[in-house]
Design goal:
This protein is α/β, with parallel strands linked by helices. It has eleven helices and 14 strands. Helices cover 27% and strands 21% of the residues. The protein is globular and about 65 Å long. The relative contact order is 0.12.
Length: 369
């Protein structure tokens, strides 16, 4: 059922986007409290993990103004939580404040909540309406929904290439194919992710930092390296500044493992039958570690492995208006014997950034969980 969004819920969705770089691994939620006379009396969004949720922030806003929330309607983009974590249940806070009605976009997929928040509210006599803004809230929290329902993060593959699909020349040169505007936008997508994934080939070739520098951010995402033979140098830039670095390997080299762990890395042994890292098992492990969105910035080989194994959910593609001819492609998989075997995508958005194009394309059917 489609709903016409009310201005107050639209405002709550806008507040939820302010939690984009802040709330991981918790969902991005916004809340607006409206008095019976139609005036907005409080608003808030989810803070850093362990901090107040959107509903509590909105109630604090009411209190700070010296106003009364009794009889108000709460417009919230996700079902108020009903369990005790690092914070108390938001549904109880709303009930205690005398909220008369809750308009929520979508149920919380967390099994600890999953409708229980709505049940508690209704049992306390609070009117509950569910559905307005569901698609927008789910898209904003696609990684959280993925982790809660599938047990794995939402995998977004970021690529910068020429118009003919070259991501690097044969000699490895790739800086810079796209414009500064595109690179800054890429950093914003890094900032919203819980973790950035790369392969050991990229580390050895480029020694990247893979941090967020081009946009302000209150937190740096974790960094994840697929390193089958445990070749990661102990002085790699990824290990600087106390970054939380997860290294997935198929190697049993205990000496190198100890050296990397001494530099602050966490080394996880997850081999497959071919002596490579078991990528599916890696995603499941990342899910247990609270990773919602996994932002991939890797080379054509690891990209190809992720595509081949059906692990990619979405592509974030920056296309520069130039042709570079023969070089390294986007993803090395195949060869295919039929066109129908190709990876089918659905364009979610196409935008210009400076001279470049940004395309967000979702793998068909991947968001059907």
């Amino acid at each position: 059922m489609k709903f016409a969004l009310k201005p107050d819920l639209d405002k709550a969705l806008g507040l939820a986007t302010q939690a984009l770089f802040v709330s991981n691994p918790n969902p991005r939620v916004g809340c607006v409290l409206v008095a019976p006379n139609g005036h907005v009396i409080g608003q808030g969004f989810t803070q850093r993990a362990g901090g107040p949720h959107a509903e509590v922030m909105a109630l604090r806003d009411v209190a700070d103004k010296g106003l009364d929330a009794r009889g108000a309607t709460a417009y919230v983009t996700l079902e108020p939580c009903s369990h005790h974590g690092r914070t108390g249940p938001c549904c109880d806070a709303l009930i205690q404040a005398g909220i008369a009605k809750v308009v929520a976009s979508i149920a919380d997929p967390n099994p600890l909540v999953a409708g229980h928040g709505f049940d508690r509210l209704r049992a306390a006599g609070v009117e509950v309406v569910v559905g307005p803004g569901a698609e927008e809230s789910r898209d904003l929290n696609i990684g959280f929904f993925s982790r809660m329902i599938r047990g794995t993060p939402w995998v977004r593959l970021k690529v910068a290439s020429s118009l003919d699909g070259t991501t690097a020349l044969n000699n490895g040169a790739s800086q810079w194919i796209t414009s500064r505007a595109a690179r800054a936008d890429g950093h914003a997508w890094r900032a919203r992710a819980c973790a950035i994934l790369t392969g050991i080939g990229t580390v050895l070739d480029d020694n990247p930092r893979l941090d967020v520098r081009e946009v302000p951010t209150p937190r740096q995402p974790h960094v994840v390296v697929v390193d089958s033979q445990l070749q990661l140098p102990t002085d790699a830039n990824l290990l600087m500044d106390g970054r939380d670095c997860l290294v997935y390997t198929a190697s049993a080299n205990e000496a190198k493992k100890a050296a990397l762990q001494a530099r602050g890395a966490t080394v996880i042994h997850l081999p497959n039958a071919n002596g490579k890292v078991d990528l599916s098992a890696m995603l499941r492990d990342l899910g247990t570690r609270g990773i919602n969105e996994l932002h991939v910035e890797a080379g054509h080989k690891l990209n190809g492995s992720l595509v081949r194994e059906g692990l990619v959910d979405e592509l974030l593609l920056y296309l520069a208006p130039r042709l570079l001819g023969t070089g390294r492609g986007i993803a090395d998989f195949g060869p295919l014997t039929a066109l129908a075997d190709g990876l089918a995508l659905e364009f979610k958005s196409v935008d210009t950034l400076g001279a470049d194009l940004r395309i967000v394309a979702r793998v068909q059917g991947r968001d059907s969980f």
